[in-house]
């Protein structure tokens, strides 16, 4: 190891340790912390965030980064860490320490305020907090744009945080192409939606039995409970401390059994990615997923391309029927498969079908782009949300919980994240098409050999962490960079086949 890099690594170990502590607080607050703990806990998070800031932004780290720029014997790992830390340092040093602490305390409090507002179906309870979050995000983006340039708008800056290299211009073209392909398919399924009956889905499925099946499912998919945890939260999510401590959550609804199943599968996809990062990279700035688009590709691949296929459910459906004998007594595998793949416009993103899902993302993309680049009141943002749902999906929320309050992301400051879901969904289809050419994919699924699929993904995607970007990974694995046409072809073939004989 380069001696100068070794000095930097000692500093980064402290940074990483403080980040782990903050991650644990975030996990605890979302899963099991007492409701009244949030006030003092947020104060502690603010203080720890200040320590985290100072551990990274200081003269010693800056000096070491400058020294390393002139070193000629860095290996690939050291170069990747230097690139990642330099990027983080240059952006964070522009933010005053007191503002960073204030923002950290705000988003720590924000999630619990959002949860209460959602429970009460009342956006007004959350609106002042959201306004503060947006204000900070605008201010921080302006700091970077003013100092470094390189972005045509605040929103472009935020997009780059999650999907480096993507711009609103590229996303406008991407979403325009998706909309052009998806809308005719949506019109077709809307005309036939009443021909698919899935009354079984809204029968009562006791939470305890759902938990038992989801634990079985988590094991079945290869999530290692010696290195991971499955818990419950208001909104399913994945977090990790390193590749041997990966934590996922799901949410159970008694009369909507499919919700937990596919939320769990989705989060398992994220979890397998983090568990697959190479041991030499974990607990470092390059020890996680390379981008949120690539991360979402893994969750969406398992949730949809694999998780809604016949081959996947052939060995699993008998297990599900055994767990819910009474509820599924009159339900065949064919009925179940048509049910879990039924497409129709709906209000809730995380429960949306594959076909209409990207329309939900387009709504959020258009809204985020507008409120980050323009001045908007909270009432205007809510009104725009309802208008966009009417425009894109032909339906309007009847309350705030199924409308503007349905997602946790904005409460956490994750503005600019949503497009990664659509990018990831398209990447998942590209990877799925590739997997079909390099292995007997359906045979593995029918035989329950999920480990063969995961092994391939570990080898070609997961182990690299952030040492390779999404485009490099795709090119090396599939022979071409990001190509959304695979996603469009997948949707057209799947839904034409599913609905043509109805």
From TrEMBL:
Origin superkingdom: Bacteria
UniProt cofactor(s): Zn(2+)
One annotated GO biological process: proteolysis
Catalytic activity: Release of a C-terminal amino acid with broad specificity, except for -Pro
Amino-acid positions noted as binding Zn(2+) in the UniProt annotation, renumbered to this chain: 266, 270, 296
Signal sequence region: none
Residues at the catalytic site: 267
CDD domains per UniProt: M32_Taq
Name used for this protein in its record: Metal-dependent carboxypeptidase
Organism whose genome encodes this protein: Candidatus Scybalomonas excrementavium
């Amino acid at each position: 190891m380069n001696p100068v890099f070794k000095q930097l690594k000692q500093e980064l170990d402290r940074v990483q340790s403080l980040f782990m502590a903050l991650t644990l607080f975030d996990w605890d607050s979302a899963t099991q912390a007492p409701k009244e703990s949030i006030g003092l806990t947020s104060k502690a998070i603010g203080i720890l965030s200040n320590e985290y800031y100072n551990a990274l932004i200081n003269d010693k780290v800056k000096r070491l980064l400058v020294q390393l720029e002139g070193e000629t014997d860095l290996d690939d790992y050291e170069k990747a860490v230097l690139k990642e830390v330099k990027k983080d340092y240059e952006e964070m040093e522009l933010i005053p320490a007191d503002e960073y602490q204030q923002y950290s305390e705000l988003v720590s409090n924000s999630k619990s305020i959002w949860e209460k507002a959602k429970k009460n179906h009342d956006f007004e309870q959350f609106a002042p907090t959201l306004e503060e979050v947006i204000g900070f995000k605008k201010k921080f983006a302006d700091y970077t744009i003013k100092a470094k340039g390189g972005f045509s708008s605040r929103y472009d800056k935020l997009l780059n945080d999650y999907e480096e290299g993507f711009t609103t211009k590229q996303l406008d073209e991407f979403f325009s192409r998706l909309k052009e392909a998806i809308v005719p398919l949506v019109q077709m399924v809307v005309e036939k939606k009443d021909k698919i009956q899935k009354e079984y889905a809204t029968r009562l499925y006791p939470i305890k039995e759902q938990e038992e099946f989801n634990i079985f499912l988590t094991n079945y998919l290869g999530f290692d409970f010696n290195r991971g945890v499955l818990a419950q939260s208001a909104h399913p999510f994945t977090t990790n401390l390193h590749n041997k401590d990966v934590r996922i959550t799901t949410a159970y609804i008694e009369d909507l059994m499919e919700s937990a199943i596919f939320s769990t599968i989705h989060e398992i996809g994220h979890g397998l990615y983090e568990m697959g990062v190479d041991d030499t990279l974990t607990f470092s700035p390059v020890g996680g997923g390379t981008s949120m688009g690539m991360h979402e590709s893994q969750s969406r691949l398992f949730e949809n391309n694999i998780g809604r296929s016949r081959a996947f459910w052939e060995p699993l459906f008998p297990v599900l029927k055994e767990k819910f004998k009474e509820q599924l007594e009159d339900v065949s595998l064919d009925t179940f498969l048509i049910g879990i793949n039924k497409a129709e416009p709906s209000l809730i993103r995380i429960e949306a079908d594959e076909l209409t899902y990207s329309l939900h993302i387009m709504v959020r993309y258009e809204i985020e782009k507008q409120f980050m680049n323009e001045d908007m009141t909270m009432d205007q943002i809510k009104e725009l949300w309802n208008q966009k749902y009417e425009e894109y999906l032909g339906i309007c929320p009847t309350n705030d919980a199924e409308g503007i309050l349905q997602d946790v992301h904005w409460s956490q400051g994750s503005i600019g994240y949503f497009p990664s879901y659509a990018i990831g969904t398209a990447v998942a289809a590209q990877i799925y098409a590739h997997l079909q050419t390099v292995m007997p994919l359906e045979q593995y699924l029918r035989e329950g050999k999920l480990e063969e699929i995961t092994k391939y993904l570990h080898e070609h995607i997961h182990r690299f962490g952030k040492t390779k970007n999404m485009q490099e990974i795709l090119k090396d694995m599939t022979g071409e960079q990001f190509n959304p046409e695979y996603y469009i072809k997948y949707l057209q073939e799947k839904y034409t086949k599913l609905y043509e004989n109805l």
